Amino acid sequence: MRTFRIGGVHPPENKLSAGKKIETLALPKQAVIPLSQHIGAPATPVVKKGDIVKVGTLIAQPGGFVSAAIFSSVSGKVAKIDEVVDASGYRKPAVYIDVEGDEWEESIDRTDALVKECTLAPEEIIAKIKDAGIVGMGGACFPTHVKLMPPPGNVANILIINAVECEPYLTADHKLMMEKPEQILVGVSILMKAIKVNKAVIGIENNKPDAIRLMTKAAAAYPGIEVMPLKVKYPQGGEKQLIDAVIRRQVASGALPISTGAVVQNVGTAYAVYEAVQKNKPLFERVVTVTGKSLKNPSNFLVRMGTPMRMLIEAAGGMPEDTGKIIGGGPMMGKALVNADVPICKGSSGVLLMNDKEAGRGGMQPCIRCAKCVSACPMGLEPYLLATLSAHADWERVEKEDVMSCIECGSCQFTCPSHRPILDYVRLGKGRVGAIIRSRKK
After folding, report:
1. Distance (Å, rounded) from C-alpha 120 to C-alpha 118?
2. Of the four, 15, 47, 101, 415, which is 20 to 30 A from 363 by CA?
3. Pairing state of beta strands 200-205 and 158-162?
4. Which domains does the chain have, with CATH numbers?
């Protein structure tokens, strides 16, 4: 069975919510919808205070080429356009909507009927995906329409669907496959048509045997789509790692994944594409896992964007007394949140409540030169060196040692016996070097 060839670790899986069906969460009293829910320029609001909106009304248009439209997830009145602290911990512009009822735009097909046929041309599909504000649902939030238009000189010959969900605790993608396999497969065939390829591979780790069985059986009716079981290894959901696992090609440092001939899309994105293209439904809700060892009822919820995370925690049995940290995402790549009122966004795959014992970091010890971080790094970097150089602010050397190739997976820190904050320092270095590179280009 395949997996990627460089580095990787095996953190405890802790898929506590794997057996829980997707439940629809109640609507919030007020939705706070950030205008920066994607990589690239924030969206520009097209509504103002006092405007009446419905579910699916455009409230902000893309602010540049790499940007994405944002839609209201609720119906009601725009209370204000202000700022909100999002999952990054920074204040970002947001539209506040007071919820009144649940009235949807008439153009959205709300029936459960499966619509298989898609007669649109590739350009029309991409336009529809762009108009629906779809971004990568795996967490990176790269605008999907941009990824479907490879730069000149690059040609796609395979579509890879990322259904790996290698991040511990998270089960949103797993449950989506269990409950919407046909819709996902129609979405995959639409994406194949958009990038003009006749082969697609859905990569699923073999800790989800039920999803592998179900998707393999359903995929038999869709020409060119294959389900590939993969060995469990973190971070297999990383784009470059998944390409290596599936087609045995490695993305060169600084190159785009398309250079290998592969376009990678998350399984949740494929479902959103089905809804956008076949049901005229823009992206305003997603499946989110709420989980934690002390949580009464770990769950998977279908949640509207702009819902405060506090509501998800309450629906899953309330905040446990021994909560040490609230993490947006999973334990490896997620970030600790400042409070539970952070709104759900397009990239919110999970809310993890870590208890005091789990959340506590071990005391930092001197590096013992064991090189475990080097063996674990899936990008073949030297994390101990990048961390040390960043701590000493040697940005020139940090850049030379290829810090920009780091995918921030946390394998280095996970494997460090001295509890050194390797990833924290590498992230600092990556941020600084990124700013230096951007200023140089200007």
Report:
1. 6
2. 15
3. parallel
4. 28-106+284-357 (3.10.20.600), 122-279 (3.40.50.11540), 372-441 (no CATH)
Please state, in angstroms and rounded to a whole number, the distance separating the CA atoms of residues 143 and 128.
13
Output the pLDDT for position 279: 98
Q: What is the pLDDT of residue 394?
A: 98
* Contact by Cβ (8 Å): 298, 16: yes
Tokens describing residue 66: 């790499």
Q: What is the pLDDT of residue 254?
A: 87
Chain position carrying tokens 């509501």:
311
Backbone angles phi, psi at 270, to 5 degrees: -60, -40
pLDDT averaged over 10-residue windows placed end to end, the chain, 442 residues: 97 97 98 94 96 98 94 98 91 96 97 96 98 92 94 95 97 98 98 98 98 98 97 97 97 93 97 98 98 98 98 97 96 94 96 95 95 98 98 97 96 97 96 96 88
Instruction: Please answer whether residues 147 and 136 qualify as being in contact, where contact means their C-beta atoms are separated by less than 8 angstroms.
Output: yes
Instruction: Determine how many CB atoms are found less than 10 A away from the CB of residue 59.
Output: 24
